[in-house]
Amino acid sequence: MWHTAPVLFDFSAICYLLGKIEGGGLTPLGTAFALGGRKIATALHVVRDAPNVQLLMPRAPVGGYQDGTDNAANVRPLRLVEADPIRDLAVLETPEDFSTTVPYLLASTDEIQPGMPVSTHGYPHVDAGRYVLTQYPTTVGAKVLLATQGVKSKYLVLNTLLQRGQSGSLVFNPATMNIVAVVIGPHHPTGGTGARFVISGVDPAALNQTAHAVSAEYLTAMIR
Question: Fold for domain 11-93?
Answer without folding.
Answer: Thrombin, subunit H (2.40.10)
